[in-house]
Amino acid sequence: MCGIVGYLGSNGAYEILIQGLKRLEYRGYDSAGVALVTCDGSLNVHKARGKVANLEQTAAAGCTEGSLGIAHTRWATHGEPNDINAHPHVSQSGEIALVHNGTIENYSVLKEALTEHGYSFKSETDTEVLVQLIDYIKHTSSCTLVEAVREALLQVEGAYAVAVVEKGDPDTLVVARKSSPLVIGVGEGETFIASDATPIIGYTDKVIYLKDNEIAVIRRNEPLSIVSIDSNAPSEIDIQKLKLSLAQLEKGGYDTFMLKEIFEQPSTLRDCLRGRITDDCSRVVLSGVELNKERFLKAERITLCIRGTSWHAALIGKRLIQDFCQIPVEVEYASEFRYGNPVLNEKDIVISISQSGETADTLAAIQLAKEKGAFVYGVCNVVGASIPRATDSGTYIHVGPEIGVASTKAFTGQVTVLTLFALAVGQLRGAIDADTVREVATALKAMPEIIEETLKCDPEVQTLSRIFTYAHNFLYLGRGYNYPTALEGALKLKEISYIHAEGYPAAEMKHGPIALIDHEMPSVIIAPSDSLYDKIISNVQQVKSRGGAVVAIVSKGNTAMNDIADFCIEIPSVPECLTPLVASIPLQLLAYYIAVGKGKDVDQPRNLAKSVTVE
Ligand code: M6R
User: Fold this and answer.
1) What is the arithmetic mean of pLDDT over 484-492?
2) What is the Å distance from ligand 1's center to 13 Cα?
3) Largest CB tally within 10 Å, which of 61, 280, 349, 530?
4) pTM of the prediction?
5) How far is CA 608 from the centre of its chain?
6) What percent of the chain has pLDDT over 70?
7) DSSP label at 564?
8) Residue 272 vs residues 244, 320, 474: alpha-carbon distances, Å
9) 291 confidence band (pLDDT: 50, 70, 90)
10) Residue 391 Cβ contacting ligand 1 at under 6 Å
């Protein structure tokens, strides 16, 4: 949700910033902007509504010199997406430029006070208030830029990652963070800052993850310094090695990141499973569980707290944990949980699942759960992100950077880790028998090959998608383990094709949604040969008898469904608890090809951003 990037070094900042913005564009693409300080100290700002490509066109007409600069790609919160509301924002004196990711909650109070001091505002953003406040403090206290930034941040309530530069000073870049991520890349004679590590890859593999309430001062030819915003006391500088490669950030011959990520799933699941199942498939080993055995043994309840696609993974996780661990499980939207006064104690385990590791509501829910004494376990993709740092323990899904806004490989990684987790905790508590562990672990270990096999449905799904490109509504139905798969299939279609789609437990259809069915309302029905197959067959018949077209996802070898459904897509047979992993593959492809057929930008769908760092 907004991306910021900055550079101070000996090279031209502009190109580095533009390339950095392109890698951060998944965080928002409502507008983009850049501020550059030239070696003689002049400050040049360029902004444009829309994507970074528009900014490049606008900036080409102006000065793009300077080896110090900051830049921003926006997902609009305060104020519509236009050139004026685009960052960087410049103070009234014209001296200070700032980019911001987050939300200043008390901006209206600050704005009122600054207005009384003669400040006027051009934009509708909360961010402009912060840059004016820094300007006001700097001029009234005659202090340095860094002192003014620190003093201003002490007055601010909300979340921020900010980068600030000043006219007349081509040698100083000030950055700070609270609840929004910020990474510093330490190169040879050059420093990079960004909302995540992707703009830094290829320049340096040395990074510092700035902690909450820290402010860093980057000065040309001087060592970096980091202090606490609250106390001004120096912080320890912890340089870590980045393990991402440039190839992971490229499309690798695919038309889009989303298609690449769908087809990467055999290898991402291999990475996700590596070293977690013993050779004979008799045991699952998760260090996050092993190191905290006592907490898992005494647990009386598990609550999964999440948002979006991760919520669908959590609903599958609920079934897995209940089946294998015999512990009551609840699934909560983090945004509701945090304001729901949850009753928790030290016998509660809260699991938060997040691809980005930065989702604001999920982070707040973790904080709350910890305050109430619960043990918090994270299931996250981005290494070093805020959520894995805030949780007591956890497991990374290790599926590599997911750049397409619609989550695909992260979903299957999350479901895989939740399966491992349920097996590991079930074993620990003696709630699962050895044969079940062996059966599920064996199939899970083979999952990369099984997904490879499943992906062979691609040409068939592509052809099928053409029939449905002009549908206005879709129903996705599933039962048991595949009710959440239906929800996820519907979300994929909605978010990238803008077709209205609803996921429903198949048996609930009779209690309302069946009224919607006619020849214009296709249904996708997930019907593997599992314990509920006979029940779902009758749901298929109910749709058919009301004139609705049915696309059925069935287990390989099920020919009977050909006589009932309009179209059948076969998936390999796997144990029931693993069917969501295979069934989600044709659903991802169907959403993808329908969206492409409609000419939509699947990697950057309208109004969305990959990482939701605001409430
Ligand atoms: O990074 P997170 O997993 O915490 O993100 C949660 C949701 O914002 C995310 O899953 C969103 O729903 C995706 N666009 C779904 O494809």
Assistant:
1) 98
2) 32
3) 349
4) 0.86
5) 11
6) 100
7) T
8) 15, 18, 32
9) very high
10) no
3-class DSSP assignment, residue 526: strand
Place of tokens 């693993």: 578
The per-residue pLDDT of the chain, averaged, comes to: 94
Taking the C-alpha atoms of residue 1 and residue 102, their distance in angstroms, rounded to an integer, is 8
pLDDT at 79 over 80: no
C-alpha distances in angstroms, 10 versus 13, 22, 187, 190?
A: 8, 21, 11, 7
Answer whether 354 contacts ligand 1 (Cβ < 6 A): yes
3-state secondary structure of 506: helix
Q: Tell me the torsion sign for CA atoms 166, 170, 172, 174.
A: positive
Structure tokens of 309?
A: 């696609």
Query: Is the link from the previous residue into 459 a cis peptide, with omega within 30 of 0?
Result: no
Q: How many CA atoms lie within 13 A of 156 on its CB side?
A: 31
352 lines ligand 1 (CB under 6 A): no
Residue to mutate, 1, 304, 307, 338, ligand 1, most ligand atoms under 8 Å from C-beta: 307
| Structure tokens that stand for 86 in this block | 């685009």
DSSP 149-191: HHHHHHH--EEEEEEEEETTEEEEEEEEEEBS--EEEE-SS-E
pLDDT, tens only, 545-601: 899 999 999 999 998 898 999 999 999 999 999 999 999 999 999 999 999 999 999
- Residue 1 has, within 13 A of its CA and on its CB side, a CA count of 23
Task: Compute the distance from residue 306 Cα to the ligand 1 centre, in Å.
Answer: 9
**How far is it, in rounded angstroms, from Cα 614 to Cα 156?**
16
Place of tokens 């992707």: 198
